[in-house]
Structures are given as C-alpha cells and as structure tokens.
Amino acid sequence: MNMRASPIFMALIATFLSCMVLFSGKPAEGIIGINWGRQSSQRMIPSMVVDLLLQNEIQEARIFTAADNVMAAFSGSGIGLSISLSNFVLHVINSSTVAEEWIQNSVTKFRSQNVDIRYVNVGVEPFSTTFTNKTYDNAVDVLKLIQNALNNAGYGDIVKATIPHYSDVLKQGIMKPSEADFRDDIKAKMVEYLKFLRENNAPAMIDIYPIHYCRENDLDPDFAFFDKKSKFFVLDDNGLNYTNAFDFLYDSFYWAMRKAGTPDLRLVVGQVGWPTDGYPNANTTYAERFYKDLLPYVIGNKGTPLHPGMPIDVYIHSLSDENRLGIWYGGFQRHWGIYTSDGQPKFKIDLSGKGRDIFPTTAKGITHMPKRWCIFNEDMSDMDIIKDEFDKACYNSDCSSLEPGGSCSHLSFKQNVSYAFNRYFQVKQQRIHEKACNFQGLGKVVPDDPSTGTCIFPIEILAAESADRGAPFLGINGDQFIRVSLLAMLLPLLSFFLISNSINVELFTK
Ligand SMILES: *[C@@H]1O[C@H](CO)[C@@H](O)[C@H](O)[C@H]1NC(C)=O
Ligand SMILES: *[C@@H]1O[C@H](CO)[C@@H](O)[C@H](O)[C@H]1NC(C)=O
Ligand SMILES: *[C@@H]1O[C@H](CO)[C@@H](O)[C@H](O)[C@H]1NC(C)=O
Ligand SMILES: *[C@@H]1O[C@H](CO)[C@@H](O)[C@H](O)[C@H]1NC(C)=O
Ligand SMILES: *[C@@H]1O[C@H](CO)[C@@H](O)[C@H](O)[C@H]1NC(C)=O
C-alpha cells in the first residue's frame, strides 16, 4: 500500500492515457486531478509535493504559479500539468506576438524539459460575480490568442486552453437543470467561448462548490452530498431525478451548453472540494463524507443523470491550505486543503478513488520549528492597545479559524488574543529577537501547547526558502518582458496593497 509508483511506470500510464485521448477524443475514464496553490506562509518544497502526488496515485495537477523550481519538480514525473494565467495578467496578452512569447516561455520551454503540460487555464473564474464584483471581459479574446499560439507552436493536439468558470455564470434561482441558461450579461461571450472550444476540441471547465450552492440557494445542506440523505431533491426533470448538487450543477451547465448550440463538448470540473474551517458545515467530518462518495463516483464512470456512463474529470480543490489567500468572501477560503499547509492529512480520503478507508500519505521530510508558542500575558489594563495588537497580529497572519463556525470560534476573549499572537509569532518564524512576540509587552513565549478542544495553535514549518526560491511574480514565469512591464503597470496598486496589507503579493493570482 502507498508504495511509491515508479516514474517510468507513471510515464507509461500517462502516455497510454494521452493516446486514448488522441484516438477517442475523450479520456478512457474519469481522472482525479488536484489543485496545488502556494499562497501560504509555510510552503512544502515542490519535490516533496510531487512525491506526495505520486504516492497518492494522482495523475493530474493544476498549479497557479509556474516558478522554474516548481516546473522542474514535475519533470519526468508523468503527472499531467495544467498551468494558469491569472486574471490580473489577462490584459497583458493583447496580441499574437505576446501570446506566442508566453507560450514559448511557459509551455515550450518546460515541455522540452519533460514537463507534461496539458492544459492552459486562461483566467480564474473571470466572469464570476460571487467572490468579487470585477469581471474580466477579455478572457475569451485571450483564450483565442493562447490556443492559436499553441496551435502554431505545434501543440494543438496535446495542449488545450480553456477558461475555468464558476457556476454563477449560470442564471440563479433555477429549480431544475433543464431550466439552466447563461447569465444575460455574459451569454454572448459564453457562446463565443464554447464555439471556439469546439473548433479546437478543447473541454469547457466549471468549478463546483456544493457547500456554497446549498447555502446560497437556501437548500438542505445534505443536498451537497452524494449519500441521498437530503430532504431536498429534484424529481422528474424530463424524466430525470437529482439527489445531489454536483449532478445538478454539472447537468445544468450541459443544458446551458445545449442551448448555446454546443451540446457535445467535454466538460471538466476544474475545482471541487470541501473546506474544513471558517464556515458552517466546514469541518473534517463533512469533508470526509463528501470525498468518500465523490471520488469512487468519478472513477466508476457513472456519469450524471443526463449522461449516464460518461467519464467526468475532476480537479480536487485543493492539496493544502493557503493562509495567505484573500478572505473577502470568508475565512474558509484558506481551508480547502486535504492537507494542512505543513503536509499533514486532515481526514481520511482515498485519492485513487478506490474508496479504501485510509489516510493519504503524509509529506516526507518536513521539519517544524521548535515547540514554543506566543500567548497573551493577560494584562487587561489597556483594552485599546490589546485590540490594536490583536487586529495587527491577525492582519499579518491568519485568524480565519476564529470566525463564526470556525474551529476556534468558541475561544474566550483572552484566548482569542493568544491565538492571534501565536499565529503572528509563527508566521514570523518565531523570531523573538525581532520582536515577533512583543505586542507592546503583552506577549510571552511558552513551552506548553495552548491548543484547546477543536482549536489548534499551530507551529509552522521551518522556512525552506533557500531550497524553494518561491514563485515569480503573478504566476507568469520566465518572461522578463512581461514581468517588468507588468510590474510597472501594477506598481501603484501594489504599493497600496503592500502598505495597507502586508499579505503576500501572490494573492493576486486568485
Ligand atoms: C498591448 O499592451 C501594451 C502594453 O500595455 C501596449 O503598449 C500595446 O500597444 C498593446 N498592443 C495592442 C495590440 O493593443
Ligand atoms: C457587488 O455589488 C453588489 C451591488 O452593487 C453588492 O451588493 C455586493 O456586496 C458586491 N459584492 C462584492 C463581493 O463586492
Ligand atoms: C425518479 O423518482 C421517481 C419517484 O421516486 C421514480 O418513480 C422514478 O422511477 C425515478 N426516475 C428515475 C429515472 O430514476
Ligand atoms: C461537522 O459539522 C457537522 C454539521 O454542522 C456536525 O454535525 C459535526 O459534529 C461536525 N464535526 C466536527 C468534527 O466538528
Ligand atoms: C474572537 O475573535 C473573533 C474574530 O475576530 C470574533 O468573531 C469573536 O467574537 C471573538 N470572541 C470574543 C469572545 O471576543
């Protein structure tokens, strides 16, 4: 069990699978991939992560930042890779020359180093209005430039560009999948997108978050699961029944595609998962329950009510927690990981889809900082200073677990302050001499773990910056020209963020 699969064997499998794709236009069976974002104060070294993926029999991965050292780790691994262009760089790709240059530096360069890049994701939910009010209307133009550049470089058959969309590209408030259609404001763009995909034999992509869908639409939370415990279900949508949000949304997207004149496209699920903190029903029990049925369902090629037996590819969201993601929409955004950010599995999940009752393998070679914590000394004489220091500590670290529904939402005020101080202390790599546990004299370092009940006071991993050089700016790699001109363009915005918010600039990628 959990033997490390040999890279050669994996490469053979990958070759076999890509041949199947070429010959049939569809994969032989549903594939379980995983998203790996790195917007975290503590990061696993890329080679550790690739090792983790191989041990867990993961065949495909999607990354958001394509640093050279990250790409190098995937070289020869046999893992199919999806790379991403973040929303914030879409406007830079404004001509075929720039697109070709980007493909040269992001695809050709790494494919020649034996990195099996298969998809380019153009933007991240660029038409979504749920998590932000800003949409990126040129995404389809960029998609065309990118796929055309891929075709010109001779990759037309093996590397496909697509755009991952959130389910809010569909009109809200439908009661049956057959009622689904695209939102009026983006309908023309969606039709253009789908027709272009069809011409290039590329798949459409949808991100599905059942936990939100049920909450946003006031549905029975059990409808988010596959175990048919929901009091809400849909009967007789043209003879079909729906007992879970995944099937419901997937088939809704197909209905909208059908109405757009492209009923026969392949539809890949770019993100699907369950957060474990910072939101009602977001915990490890429910995450385990969700994946327990989802993954065997994918591997079993059961298909959906509308397409029984059709293979569905899904990318699990995500590999590990990212405590530097923006939390405009809620603290749970930092808790999508199957693993904590230090590589510990949070719950049982069989990533191969075989449904075994197992924990996934733990990351190897992780070194934690010493067992010491920074807590509040409980001097309550000046509440203003306490609140101020609490806010600053949270702002510069991660207090999302304190939010209602979170694993630490039951703490007392004093424990709250200790929690915040400790998070800051750990993010600052326990640097006592640099006042990482000062807080105007309110902090003290202790050797005993202050964790209580469900609330863990974490210790971060030893920074591995020398081994992991970090991702270059904004998820585009290699291309000095783009990086420099982008930097110039974004400098005013960037300095605003750096001043108002010391969160890592990588938050721009989502
Ligand atoms: C593309 O953007 C660059 C930088 O903003 C600009 O100088 C150039 O004129 C644009 N090209 C086109 C074809 O719009
Ligand atoms: C988006 O705009 C609407 C209406 O202007 C507003 O109600 C909503 O809060 C905004 N959402 C975000 C995430 O900013
Ligand atoms: C849908 O549910 C109804 C009522 O339970 C049942 O009679 C029917 O056979 C179901 N249809 C399918 C396709 O499963
Ligand atoms: C997870 O949430 C569910 C529903 O809110 C609850 O019944 C269950 O006890 C929770 N599990 C844990 C470990 O907190
Ligand atoms: C602890 O902090 C959280 C997040 O700021 C807040 O919602 C909660 O009310 C605080 N609890 C107490 C007892 O002050």
From TrEMBL:
<dbReference type="Pfam" id="PF07983">
    <property type="entry name" value="X8"/>
</dbReference>
<dbReference type="InterPro" id="IPR017853">
    <property type="entry name" value="GH"/>
</dbReference>
<dbReference type="InterPro" id="IPR012946">
    <property type="entry name" value="X8"/>
</dbReference>
<dbReference type="InterPro" id="IPR000490">
    <property type="entry name" value="Glyco_hydro_17"/>
</dbReference>
<keyword id="KW-0812">Transmembrane</keyword>
<keyword id="KW-1133">Transmembrane helix</keyword>
<comment type="similarity">
    <text>Belongs to the glycosyl hydrolase 17 family.</text>
</comment>
<dbReference type="GO" id="GO:0016798">
    <property type="term" value="F:hydrolase activity, acting on glycosyl bonds"/>
</dbReference>
<keyword id="KW-1015">Disulfide bond</keyword>
<dbReference type="Pfam" id="PF00332">
    <property type="entry name" value="Glyco_hydro_17"/>
</dbReference>
<feature type="transmembrane region" description="Helical">
    <location>
        <begin position="481"/>
        <end position="500"/>
    </location>
</feature>
<dbReference type="InterPro" id="IPR044965">
    <property type="entry name" value="Glyco_hydro_17_plant"/>
</dbReference>
<feature type="domain" description="X8">
    <location>
        <begin position="372"/>
        <end position="457"/>
    </location>
</feature>
<protein>
    <submittedName>
        <fullName>O-Glycosyl hydrolase family 17 protein</fullName>
    </submittedName>
</protein>
<keyword id="KW-0378">Hydrolase</keyword>
<keyword id="KW-0732">Signal</keyword>
<feature type="signal peptide">
    <location>
        <begin position="1"/>
        <end position="30"/>
    </location>
</feature>
<keyword id="KW-0472">Membrane</keyword>
<keyword id="KW-0326">Glycosidase</keyword>
